[in-house]
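Incident log, structure service

09:12 report received: a user says their structure output differs between two submissions of the same chain.
09:20 pulled the input from the user's history:
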Amino acid sequence: MLMVGASVGMLFYQIISFVMPELAAQPALYILIGMGAFLAAGTHAPLMAILMIFEMTHRIDLVLPLMFACVIANVVSSLFSTPAMYGVTLSREQAARLRRQISSMTLKGLVIEARTVLRQDQTLEQAVAMFQDHPVRYIYVVDENNHYQGVLSNQEVTRWLLSQSPMTTPISELMVQPHFIPVLHPDMTLGEGLELFLTFMGERLPVLLSKDEPILLGVVRKSAILEQLEEQRALSERHQPPHIDFRISGDK
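09:34 re-ran on a clean worker, output below:
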């Protein structure tokens, strides 16, 4: 940034020297003023830029044009609503800190009881009753050991009803789809869980103990993950390290 400002200052000096050579001062002054102006524009902190350049030179004759250039540069930069350089840095640090927090948090604490579960030995009549009581698209099917077998969709139940199948038909004879929807595990991170929800249009997904032992533990809701992420983002913002604001009161 300082190099760009110095280059622009030198270019401005060459233009002045060519157009009005009698007004051209020392090139170093133009370079320093250009550095200060770009620093003020990039940080939205003109007072800091003025003080830094003055501390580098200790030249009184530089203060007035430097103040003018820094204030003008800050105003022009503010008109374009560009984020301050330090603000961008802080935002990136905050985002990185949030990613680290999310990567260390698992879905275990978000698992709730699954209310729409049937065993394989239960009947079509019980599946119909459960769909009537719960406005869901899928019922989770387990065996006698609570091992997850897949899902039974409301469309499949409707198809069997239209075919006038006996209401005593066991669920094991219906089309239970084991891999129709993604499944979660309690040791997955919030980020991994959210990625699976992005491929699924529903609000909840089943949680299994592990791949080797697919015991149905419950479900996790998409809204619970989003609420947890929002809570962590708010905590990250509240605990971000304080930073010094060099802007003058009129620039805030």
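09:41 both user submissions now match this output. Likely a transient worker issue. Closing.
09:42 reviewer note: The first strand starts at residue 117 and ends at 119. Residues 85-103 form the longest helix (19 residues).
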